[in-house]
Write a structure and sequence with these properties.
alpha+beta, CBS-domain, three-stranded mixed sheet
Length: about 130
């Protein structure tokens, strides 16, 4: 198993097309989409479809108790100053997993060489891969 995590890349385990939301979308729209799709995170994209950041249920929960008008707040306010974390499809599962653990992330956007969003990998995806190998 140890070598497989190094040899298998993010792109080979069937990365999913991620659910996305525009930076201009309201927090309530993002939360509604996350609930409808039953996901804990959603990729935030700019007007050109480029990765702008990642929004998690934890981000929404935090601001719900801080801001009075969270419902209409644009998603861009929640990801302001965020340095987007991502991986390329060629990255090994081990490296993706290490980044996720080190940065306490449940999922990572996957982008190609031209910064186009091509998918998302989650802890669940990696756990399913490991379960199949055991």
């Amino acid at each position: 198993m140890q070598n497989e995590l190094d040899e298998v890349t993010v792109g080979t385990i069937g990365i999913k097309t991620p659910f996305t939301v525009s930076v201009d979308a309201s927090v309530s729209k993002a939360a509604e989409k996350m609930l409808r799709e039953k996901v804990h995170s959603i990729v935030v994209v700019d007007k050109n479809g480029k990765l702008a950041g990642m929004l998690t249920s934890w981000d929404i929960l935090k601001v719900t108790f801080i801001a009075e008008k969270t419902k209409d707040m644009p998603v861009s306010k929640l990801i302001e100053g965020q340095q987007p974390m991502f991986v390329f499809p060629e990255v090994s599962l081990r490296d993706a997993l290490n980044l996720m653990v080190d940065k306490n992330l449940r999922a990572l956007p996957v982008v190609d060489d031209s910064d186009k969003l091509v998918g998302k990998i989650s802890m669940t995806d990696i756990a399913k891969f490991v379960r199949e190998k055991l």
